[in-house]
Specification:
alpha+beta; 5-stranded antiparallel sheet; 3-stranded antiparallel sheet; 10 strands; globular; binds adenosine monophosphate; binds magnesium ion
């Protein structure tokens, strides 16, 4: 294989060196006709990569993994995971960790490719990804980042010129993604399943070094690590709930130790507010429904606790008691993070969390019973704080209940300008994502670029962009999403 000049990107191999048991050297599949579909120029610059060079053939070789820079050691990562509750040994079946790079601020970031060809973990899969789902991950992850929610980032999507066989034949693509790491709950689970305490300890040490360095100073570093992950995930899932994000496939292999959102397969944003909302075509039981996400996260964190038991105490019973006590903090941290977020969404000052909790409950019931558009309702509520309740009154059927609620809330003096800084105008609404992907499938990326422009500026309404702020048309129907495409 030819390599690209080393100065294109300096890639380290920290994961592969620290955890060789979990790093399988692998090569990307050739791309017959690579074509850059979208490049994240600000992110490239943040990473110290030259965006212009990324557009050249050698740049595309980096972004597809076909020409790794000299010295790079691309690997497929091994991990395990509870998938819809069932344990499985897994690994990157269609992805590669190209290596880590140090960004302009000195932070270590993974450069990872999805759709780069089969690895030994591919089992029956073809190792490929279709253009539509990779663009979908690109736009939704960039929207999450703009909303201030911890997430993996998207650097580029390159169409490969390969044909990918799904229900129909689709154009293939590779997504280049960036994360603070790809360590997952499932990474720890695999080390535990291997019954190798030394490996388990090295995984935990690697996670501490990369994500939770303060844990190294704590009297019990591994307990401190566990607590940090619990805390990061409690805060993350609260952020999802506040913005109406449904992850859709919260298997333990899709939950990071860093607290970044990862794996944008079947995810989607709520249209109408309803805790029972499920978009994923494979989640018949509603295990990962919008309203079940906090419980799903807690369940996954219990699996993490089980996996690190040998590091918590040599006596198993003691270790279980320690893990159980730590996990007990999840509910409190989640509730606190949610209450703080609701308080902000309601325009109330710091300290008014108890008011926010009391007011949010009947409000959310009203939204659920009236199938009210989540994003628009919250945004329109600021107008009610300014004295014009008609925008929200136009969205709710039970007006006597809404009016009584508004009166109680307005008596607390909500600040509409503060509300406008936390209640977005622009999220990647499902009908907008679909129209952009449809057009992209026919070679027209204009709508994708417009949608990206909207979601990258989530809090600012813009003249001429009203349709990007509006709920789905009534005939949009039930939205379905798919995994592993
Ligand atoms: P996901 O549900 O996307 O997190 O994927 C679960 C597992 O299936 C991961 O280990 C993926 O690498 C693997 N996988 C998904 N799609 C494919 C594919 N087309 N070819 C090979 N492996 C795949
Ligand atoms: Mg995954």
């Amino acid at each position: 294989m030819t390599t690209a000049p080393a100065d294109l990107a300096t890639l380290e191999a920290r994961f592969a060196t620290a955890l060789p048991e979990l790093a399988l050297p692998a090569q990307a599949a050739e791309t017959p006709e690579p074509r850059l579909m979208v490049l994240n120029v600000p992110l490239a610059e943040e990473l110290g990569l030259d965006p212009e060079r990324l557009e050249t053939p050698e740049g595309l070789g980096l972004l597809t993994g076909t020409r790794p820079p000299a010295g790079a050691q691309p690997v497929a990562q091994a991990y395990a995971g509870h998938q819809f509750g069932g344990f499985a040994r897994l690994g990157d079946g269609r992805a590669l960790l190209m290596g880590e790079l140090v960004d302009r601020e000195g932070r270590l970031r993974d450069l990872h490719l999805k759709g780069s060809g089969r690895t030994r973990f591919a089992r029956g899969g073809d190792g490929l990804a279709a253009l539509g789902p990779m663009l979908r991950e690109y736009v939704v992850s960039e929207a999450m980042h703009a909303l201030g929610i911890p997430t993996t980032r998207s650097l580029a999507v390159v169409a490969t010129g390969r044909r990918v066989h799904r229900e129909e034949v689709l154009p293939g693509a590779v997504l280049a993604r960036v994360a603070s790491s790809h360590l997952r709950v499932g990474t720890v689970q695999l080390a535990r399943a291997a019954d190798d305490v030394d490996l388990l300890r090295r995984v935990a040490d690697h996670a501490i070094e990369r994500h939770h360095p303060l844990a190294a100073e704590a009297p019990e570093p591994y307990l401190a690590l566990y607590r940090s992950v619990i805390s990061a995930q409690a805060s993350l899932v609260a952020r999802w709930m506040l913005v109406g994000f449904v992850h859709g496939v919260m298997n333990t292999d899709n939950m990071t130790l860093s607290g970044e959102t990862i794996d944008y397969g079947p995810c989607a944003f709520l249209d109408a507010y309803d805790p029972a909302t499920v978009f994923s075509s494979i989640d018949d039981g509603g295990r990962y429904a919008y309203g079940r996400q906090p419980a799903a996260a807690q369940w996954n964190l219990a699996r993490l606790g089980e996996a690190i038991l040998p590091l918590l105490h040599e006596d198993q019973e003691e270790a279980v008691a320690i893990a159980t006590e730590a996990l007990g903090e999840f509910a409190r941290e989640y509730d606190d993070a949610l209450a703080a977020g609701l308080r902000a969404k309601l325009g109330l000052p710091i300290g008014a969390e108890a008011d926010a909790r009391r007011l949010a409950e009947p409000l959310l019931e009203l939204l659920a019973s009236g199938h009210v558009d989540h994003t628009s309702f919250w945004r329109n509520l600021a107008a009610a704080a300014r004295g014009d309740a008609e925008p929200v009154r136009g969205m709710v059927l039970d007006l006597p209940r809404l009016d009584a609620w508004l009166e109680e809330w307005r008596a607390l003096g909500p600040n509409p300008d503060a509300m406008d800084q936390v209640n977005p105008v622009h999220v990647p609404r499902n009908h907008l994502v679909e129209e952009a992907l449809d057009a992209a499938g026919s070679g027209d990326l204009e709508l994708m670029h417009r949608l990206l422009e909207a979601v990258r500026d989530p809090y600012r309404p813009r003249a001429g962009w009203e349709r990007y702020a509006e709920p789905a048309p009534a005939d949009f129907g039930r939205y379905r999403t798919f995994c592993g495409t």
